[in-house]
Amino acid sequence: MIKPLRGMKDLAFEDAAKFQYFIEKAATVAKRYGYSYVETPILEDTALFKRSVGESSDIVNKEMYQFIDKGSNDVCMRPEGTAGVVRFFISNKLDRQQGKFKFFYYGPMFRYERPQKGRLREFHQFGCESFGEASVYEDYTIIELIAAIFDALNIKYALEINSLGCQECMPQYRESLVEFLEKKKEKLCEDCNRRITTNPIRVLDCKNPHCKEQLVDAPKITGSLCSSCESDFTKLKSLLEQNGIEYKVNSNLVRGLDYYNKTAFEFVSSDIGAQSAIAGGGRYDRLVEFLDGKPTPAIGFAIGIERVMDLISLPEEQKSGYYIGVMDSEALDYAIAIAKALKMSETVTVEYTPRKLKAHLKAADKMNARYCMVIGEDELQNGTLWVKDLVEKVEDTLPQEQFLKRNKL
Ligand code: HAM
Questions:
Q1: CB atoms within 10 A of CB 169
Q2: CA of 280 to the centre of ligand 1 (A)
Q3: How far, in Å, from the CA of 127 to the mean position of ligand 1?
Q4: H-type helices in 343-399, by residue range?
Q5: What DSSP designation does 317 have?
Q6: For residue 111, which atom of ligand 1 is closest to its CA?
Q7: Cα distance between residue 157 and residue 222, in whole Å
Q8: Which of 64, 80, 271, 275 gets mutated to test ligand 1 (max ligand atoms within 8 A of its CB)?
């Protein structure tokens, strides 16, 4: 028996309903905030991810679904959505136009990680990317947008924010951090040691408890921000406070992708186990330029859909639609014709096997239909229809034309 690959899942039944419910809610909120839908290919040039997510990141280093295709191209299944949307933004020359562009997307992402609860190799993200707006009000607004999505779905979260500084203040900070880390070298894990040279701020994010202990006194980026980063960060905090969005500053929050600067944030849930990040994002003002576009400030986020799935409760399903049954197979053609007309506006299920009235009513009830229509000999001969409303518990026999007219068909 062939099973799905490790870390990959089929999506069906209640989970499928939750997935669609999530997308519907999230897309509605994103559209309200001015975002429009974009879909980019799952497969992209490997160089795109190397240059954006970064050669020093775990994603590019260890987790890419990368291969050479039949045309000898080095390609990669996208590990995240931002790089593709930025590539789309540049290849469509939107960077050459004045203006603001906001896009939302959702779909599968692929990372060759060690699977565990909340960590898959194929997972789905819902993301938003906003281009052309450097104001810190946009940083606040995008955080507000994520909070609005979670509020619409009744999902509880804690928000962590940080500022990663900019070209002006980050290099200096990096230097003082490296100086600190060099002194602790022997006590840090292998990964941290490698990162001291490749990407030292990622050391702050190490999950190893021994390393964490060593890092308690590490210099904090929030203590070395330049005046522009400092004032934006202060403004962001006050906007969050003014608008009732609770947050905590986590100066070790550095994110696993290399393209960020200034604002970085994560939404975490305490109800889903160790993989607690349900959304992450931040500013990436240099990425467009880095991928050969015209310098354009940008900010975005992505929500991990599988991680929020367990936190979603679907609204109780209301009885709806029609169940049509026949008492004799001769009535089937009539049933099919009525069903075709009804399907213009209703969900309709036709049971092809003839049964007694009681059995049909039971089946209609079981499938949560609002109306049960049963066609017997009388209905067939007289051109009438018998319908029972299973909510109001009333039944009616009426001529076919009248029924269709009543249903505006
Ligand atoms: P990320 O933090 O790598 O950011 O991923 C965003 C979210 O995707 C995570 O918070 C988590 O919920 C979910 N996620 C990540 N990896 C897995 C996995 N293996 N299994 C299940 N869920 C996972 C990004 O991807 C950025 N592109 C976000 C962004 C958009 N930044 C700016 N714009």
A1: 21
A2: 6
A3: 9
A4: 357-366, 377-382
A5: P
A6: 19
A7: 23
A8: 80
Q: What is the mean pLDDT of the chain?
A: 96
pLDDT for 406 equals 86
Chain Cα centroid distance, residue 244: 24
Q: Which helix H or strand E contains 232, and what residues bound it?
A: helix 227-242
pTM for the whole structure: 0.94
Backbone angles phi, psi at 312, to 5 degrees: -100, 125
Answer for the pair 157, 163: CB distance below 8 angstroms, yes or no: no
Looking at residue 409, its pLDDT comes to 80
Enumerate residues 6+ apart whose C-beta is below 8 A from 366. Answer: none
As for ligand 1, residues whose beta carbon falls within 6 Å of it are 80-82, 111, 113, 119-120, 123, 125, 127, 129, 256-257, 277-282, 284, 300-302, 304, 306-307
Q: Answer yes or no: is pLDDT of 268 > 90.
A: yes
pLDDT value of residue 275:
87
Q: Which residues contact 334 (CB under 8 A, 6 or more apart)?
A: 326, 375, 379, 380
In contact, 50 and 20? CB cutoff 8 Å: no
CA distance 203 to 191: 8
d(CA 337, CA 385): 12
Mean pLDDT of 176-188: 94
Nearest to 109 by CA among 130, 84, 87: 84
| Ligand 1 atom 1 nearest Cα | 280
